[in-house]
Amino acid sequence: MKLPLAALALTACTASVSRPATAPTAAAPGDAAAPPPIAAPEPPAPPRPPAPPPTAITVEYLAVADAWAITWTVGRPAAALRFDRALAAPRGAAWRTSAELAWRRDGDADLLVAVDGQPRQAFTAVMPSDDASPTRLPPNVVRWSDGSRLVFTGAIGGDAAVCVQDRCGPVAGPRRWTVRAAGLRVARGPGDAGEQLAWDEPDGDRRGAYVYVGRGRVDARGEVATIVDGGLPPWLAALTATLVPATVADLTARTGLPLGFVPTVLVSLRPSGGGRPGYAVRGRTVTGQVQLEAGGAGWRGRSTARARLWRELVVHELFHLWNSQVAARADVRDEWLSEGASSFVAGTALVDAGLLDATRWGRRVVAAANRCARSLRGPLYDRAADPSYYDCGEVVHVALDRALAARGGLWPVYARLFADARARPSGAYATADFLALCDGAGADPAIVAAVRAILDRGLGADPQATLRALLADAGIATSVVPGRRGRPSRLRWQPSPRPRAGGSVRP
Ligand SMILES: [Zn+2]
Fold first, then answer.
1. In the CATH scheme, what architecture does the domain 55-138+151-206 have?
2. Helix, strand, coil % in the chain, rounded to nearest 5
3. How many A from CA of 444 to the centre of ligand 1?
4. Ligand 1 mean position to 284 CA, how many Å?
5. Confidence of residue 136 (pLDDT cuts 50, 70, 90)
6. What are the C-alpha distances in Å from 257 to residues 284, 324, 421, 447?
7. What are phi and psi of 285, to 5 degrees?
8. What value does the mean pLDDT of the chain take?
9. pLDDT tens digits, residue range 137-177?
10. CATH classification (class only), 327-507
């Protein structure tokens, strides 16, 4: 997603691609008259053929050109390399290759093909440090204000596409990575950083992660490692240094689940581009890593609004370590759940930190409901609803938290959801598991039914009325502000005469 530098409240993130699950993880809800099940069973995967010889991927950072010389040496000769378009921003346009190679697009793949069609052992290309991403997918490279770079292995990890008889396709074997940067440090986790880093990647997980190249140091203390852009404003660096470990500790305590690994948090200031005004954030969670970026000249000075936005980003992204890595999503459609949960938990963290009072929190939820009413068309449990996952997801989580007000809110449900997922071979949870736990915990049946309807069918003929009713059931009162001068009508938060007790936040 592009960075709107003047935006005041953007938490744009991607929490790594869902790991596929091979089996349903909860019974389908409801009876014969109920909506269709949210998670359908999938047949077990067929047995896998033996892994082919490894592919060696060597990446050399060319500091003067700010580019990356990449060589792929495949285990068996291939006429093409295949790159998954679902993993990263598109490749190709600005990458330089020899005249013997060319980029082609093939469905869900970018292909680097031998023009003469003859299988070959080695492919080479030079990739510029391009940090654009037209979608929520990670850019090929993230640029830091101190000159450091993050290169995303999901962008440059290619697999040999081989043809057996007349059937051609990728062969995802193990990969051996080597990243070199003369005179700089290369790091991808809490370990030592030197000019060269090499590691083996198994064939089962292609989601990718960042490799850091620069002069910064890995600060590995306790439960989390960080690398911080030397150009980050001092107040923001100081806030991050305390906030990140404190948030990891808090989320561990609330879920009762230690991460089981030391995550690496990569924190940067986007190069200024002429010192554009305003301030915005961008972040994402990938395998074992959280990337946080501040953008805009506004970050130079501290303010409560900026501290609030930064804390929201930190908590939102760090909670993805639990809701997409400690426990994985069973299906890409379950992303409404992980984004909604991260947005909800980040909002409540602002209340806990004293950065939002009850009035501001209520207005935040109602603003999310207004955006949800404008954006969601069709079921929320649908890939097409992706732009609504954050706002509609947060409203749904607020409502369910209130539906569990007498049972301690949603935290015990999250804890059980992730623990159950971790106990399964798939490591995954589905939306149906989440709703079953809400039911089992004694959630208000009317609210759960309303949530199921939004997930299965959407907001109906009058989205605003549907959300207004859901908020009212959750104890959040609103009035309708009529539309004028071409602007649509919207909901406005009202002080509630009788807020529900309990839950995670008092409205
Ligand atoms: Zn997110």
1. Sandwich (2.60)
2. 30, 25, 45
3. 27
4. 7
5. confident
6. 21, 13, 12, 28
7. -115, 125
8. 87
9. 899 999 999 999 999 999 999 888 876 666 666 677 889 99
10. mainly alpha
